[in-house]
Every structure is written in C-alpha cells, then in structure tokens.
C-alpha cells in the first residue's frame, strides 16, 4: 500500500503521546501490519539519557509482543517537528532490518506534512542480519 493521507493523521496522533521532557523532540510512529492492524509508537525518554526508547522501535516492539512476527509489517510512518523529515536512527534501522521486509516502505514526515519515502534496505544497505550468522 502506498502512502495515504490518513497515515499522517495517525502518526501525528501517535506523536502526541511522546514522552520527551529532556530533548523536547517528540517523535511518532505509525506501524501497519499486512493484515490491517495498527501499532503506534512514540519516543519515551529517561533521566538516564541512553535508556531512551525511539518511536520506531516502540511500535515494533509492541507489535511483536502482541504476536506479530518478522515479515508481517506493511509500512511504518514516522513524524517529527522539524523543518525536514528526519530519518530513523541507526539502532532503529537495525531493528527494522531484523523485523521488516527489506523493501518495506518507511515514510518520513514532519509537521508541515512533507513526506520522504524510503525502504528498510535503502536506509541500511548491506546491513547485518541473521543470514550472516549461517
Ligand atoms: N528519536 C526517535 O524516536 N527516533 C529516531 O529515529 C531518532 C531519535 C528520539 C530519541 C530521543 O527521545 C529524541 O528523539 C532525540 O534524539
């Protein structure tokens, strides 16, 4: 499924739940499964800064905890309040590599409604995966 305008509404709603008192940089994620379910993510910060959890990973972890498995995901949309849509951090790219199809769309948006479309593989080319362990 290609990007649709309601993805933006959904991801902005998810962003509203971000807990980001230290960075004040609120991030939202809207994860869709291939069978039509939705998981929301938001960044959750901690006074011990490195423990902060990103929006992308929080949505994926929620879906896996609910029983979804690698390959079950259709797309993820991310949003930030910045002049340019920002792209997922390296840790989130690695987790997407583990759990999502290489060609799964990653839609990056900002508060203006700008959108940049990419894929897991484009964001982490030549990424390390379970296949490398064989
Ligand atoms: N953050 C995300 O939620 N996703 C990313 O891909 C980049 C960074 C969060 C982590 C932290 O709470 C805040 O943004 C500033 O880095």
From TrEMBL:
It catalyses: 2'-deoxycytidine + H2O + H(+) = 2'-deoxyuridine + NH4(+); cytidine + H2O + H(+) = uridine + NH4(+). Its EC number is 3.5.4.5. Gene3D superfamilies: Cytidine Deaminase, domain 2. Residues 2-131 form the CMP/dCMP-type deaminase domain. This enzyme scavenges exogenous and endogenous cytidine and 2'-deoxycytidine for UMP synthesis. Belongs to the cytidine and deoxycytidylate deaminase family. This is Cytidine deaminase. It comes from Staphylococcus shinii. The lineage of its organism: Bacteria, Bacillati, Bacillota, Bacilli, Bacillales.
């Amino acid at each position: 499924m290609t990007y649709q305008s309601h993805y933006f509404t959904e991801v902005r709603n998810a962003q509203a739940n971000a807990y980001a008192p230290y960075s004040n940089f609120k991030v939202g994620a809207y994860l869709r499964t291939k069978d039509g379910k939705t998981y929301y993510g938001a960044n959750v910060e901690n006074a011990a800064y490195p423990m902060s959890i990103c929006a992308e990973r929080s949505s994926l972890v929620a879906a896996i905890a609910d029983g979804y498995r690698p390959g079950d995901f259709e797309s993820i949309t991310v949003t930030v309040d910045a002049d340019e849509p920002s792209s997922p951090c390296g840790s989130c790219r690695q987790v997407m590599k583990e759990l999502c199809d290489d060609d799964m769309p990653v839609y990056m948006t900002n508060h203006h409604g700008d959108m940049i479309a990419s894929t897991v593989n484009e964001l982490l080319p030549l990424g390390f995966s379970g296949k490398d362990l064989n």
